Amino acid sequence: MTSEDKPVDAREWKLEPETEYRFELDPGTSLAIKLVRGYAEVFGAELAEGKYYIFGSECKAAVFTWQGCVIEVTGHASTEYLSEETPMAAYANLHIAFEQMRVRALRTLHRSPSYDDDPSANTEPPRVLILGPENSGKTTVSKILINYAVRAGQGWSPLLVNVDPSEGGWSAPGAISVAPVHSPLPTCSPANPLGSAATSAPTALSSNALLPLVYWYGHAEIKRNPLLMDRLIRNMGENVNEKYDVDIEGRMSGLVVDTPSSFASGPGANEHRQKLIKACVDAFKINVILVVGHEKLNVEMQRTYGAHLTVVKIPKSGGVVELDHGYRERVHNYQLHTYMYGQIIQAPPGISSATLGGEALTDLVLSPSSTVINFDDLSIFRIGAETMAPSSALPIGAARVVSEMQPVPIDPAQSGSGLLNAVLAILAPPNPDENERYDEEILDLTVTGFLIVTNIDIPHRKMTILAPNQGSVVGKTAIVGSFEWQDQ
Ligand SMILES: Nc1ncnc2c1ncn2[C@@H]1O[C@H](COP(=O)(O)OP(=O)(O)OP(=O)(O)O)[C@@H](O)[C@H]1O
């Protein structure tokens, strides 16, 4: 593009070294950012010079520069400013420490210790758990650390584990997931906070798409069913360890676990919180806990885990935006829309050859298919009863009628089944060996995709489902949670 093609409302920002340009977008608006000169990155992912990056769906983010740069910004941001105070130097120091751990671990694996290696030093790669209260920037820190590892040029593919079901990660809200990251994760929209995954994206993306392993929890809030969350975390850990058993070199890249804020604080949930942190520490063999800007939690973690693993308090960025309940609900809608239709963000006026997080805009459009199926084609379950009193609210000695972990079959023919507009997770097939089956097996199966029930025709025993692909669901098992979505 020549300078004459510059969009009318384009404005240039000059960033001094170690500063960042922060922005927040309103619903329905988008922003295009082009690096004119110098070096810049968005949460650790480098921007290429001269290319437009589009941000939308109420994205809030920052362009940071180590060396200084000039960026051109087009479109309307509801808030935009430069900040000289960032925690990036602290985050970079952490990255350097983790990089040393990876290199040392790999050298030990290859039995080629360096002369300056301390024989008593830890020879494990970094397996990092990130904890912090709401809006402390946990996901952002996870992304920065992962992106720096990927950019180190050593061929690392660290695992990013997302156990925050309210966030959606690579799939749909309500899910938790893990994926090895091979190239930096872009930021362009909260609908895809961790970049695009291959499960719903078109094949054009497969070159740099991620193949996440997904489990379905089904709710945004941990307190809905902490026992289930505990089990899913442990299942995921087992899966990761099995992968590591066969990919010993891959293990050296380490992993980062991003957690929900309810692990850090929350009224009355102390016991669950402790148990779930412990579940993560055990499942992923955590050796470093990072606490983002929370003194009390840092002290608590030091006390509980300090003797066996490293606990570090890290600063919170002043740029992290407080996200309210309404915003989070809108993001869940953006995520489900993106899951079905792909990433569609209109570039600001005047931007044509735009790219979105490195992908051409047209590559990210999907067309979901609507199919009519018989009630009997799909077995649908809910985990635990819908209206469940907490154990503490039951009379002393009373047992639950339905356990929190019991898969309860749902009959779509029953009015009030709660299936209309519900998000259903389709599960991987059970063990083909009948002898290996067990009652609660569906709690342990991974997710292969999601669909929405858009119509229920009780007289004809049929329902309409919307899914991003046309694969048949006949004979499959699905789980419903508490997420609903309507195409608007
Ligand atoms: N330096 C920054 N400048 C501008 N926006 C930022 C910055 N750092 C983080 N944000 C934005 O602030 C929001 C909250 O950050 P993030 O999601 O990392 O926090 P979190 O602690 O993981 O949140 P949650 O409460 O959902 O667990 C996100 O939209 C993120 O993109």
From TrEMBL:
Major location category of this protein: nucleus
GO molecular function terms listed in the Swiss-Prot or TrEMBL record: ATP binding; polynucleotide 5'-hydroxyl-kinase activity
Residues annotated to bind ATP: E20, K60, N135, S136, G137, K138, T139, T140
Keyword Chaperone annotated: no
Residue ranges constituting the Clp1 N-terminal domain according to the UniProt record: 14-105
Keyword list, A-Z: ATP-binding, mRNA processing, Nucleotide-binding, Nucleus
Residues covered by the Clp1 C-terminal domain: 366-487
Family annotation (InterPro entries): Clp1 (IPR028606), Clp1/Grc3 (IPR045116), Clp1_C (IPR010655), Clp1_C_sf (IPR038238), Clp1_N (IPR032324), Clp1_N_sf (IPR038239), CLP1_P (IPR032319), P-loop_NTPase (IPR027417)
Entries under Pfam families matching the protein: Clp1, CLP1_N, CLP1_P
A GO BP annotation: mRNA 3'-end processing
Region (Disordered): 112-134
GO cellular-component term (any): mRNA cleavage factor complex
Subcellular location: Nucleus
Domain Clp1 P-loop: 132-342
Family annotation (HAMAP family): Clp1 (MF_03035)
Family designation: Belongs to the Clp1 family. Clp1 subfamily.
Role description: Required for endonucleolytic cleavage during polyadenylation-dependent pre-mRNA 3'-end formation.
Assembly notes: Component of a pre-mRNA cleavage factor complex. Interacts directly with PCF11.
Protein name per Swiss-Prot or TrEMBL: Polynucleotide 5'-hydroxyl-kinase GRC3
Encoding gene, per UniProt annotation: CLP1
